[in-house]
Amino acid sequence: MADTLEKDVMAYDEAYYLDVQPEKGAEATAQNELMNVGFTSMEESTNPTEVSVQYIGDKSKTNKVTGYDNQFAFETNLIKNNKVVEYINNIFEKRLTGADAEQNLTIVKLWKPVVDGKATEYEARQIKTSTVLDTKTITPGENINLSGTFKGVGDFVYGKFDTATKTFTADEAVMSEM
Q1: Domain presence at residue 150
Q2: Looking at the DSSP assignment, which residues form a beta bridge with residue 161?
Q3: Model-level pTM?
Q4: How far apart are CA 2 and CA 6, in angstroms?
Q5: Tally of domains within the chain
Q6: Which residues constitute the domain of residue 159?
Q7: pLDDT 10s digits, 60-113
């Protein structure tokens, strides 16, 4: 029986996983780690690219969205032995650039199971991102804080994510178009 009751979707109903595998290339296996402990905020922005034109016979402009500049602003506390946070801190400290600062970000809709009754597979979308770290804030008596943005590299890939195995599988329709 399908759940038809309307419910608020809370922040904890959406899970973020970051691929912290330092090795790149076709042979590398993703190491998706849950971005939970340490992260105090995550803000997704589409930053649409728009074209606006007014035709001679119209009083108003016609607006079209022609693309997106996906970005995910975040803040996190620096936590020892947290794989995701230490991975991000390494990018900051070593001032990594290019492919060395890129990773996959997977967003999992924990309120949308792929198959009713199977509690580990959910609808998901994945995007390659480049980590841009702006600041490391050190305040006496408080946690060290890192803030920055995961900036999209290309388009989202849609599919499913298995929270038990921490693996993303792209939809067949998407794979056949590539």
Answers
A1: yes
A2: 122, 168
A3: 0.87
A4: 12
A5: 1
A6: 11-52+62-177
A7: 999 999 999 999 999 999 999 999 999 999 999 999 999 999 999 999 999 999
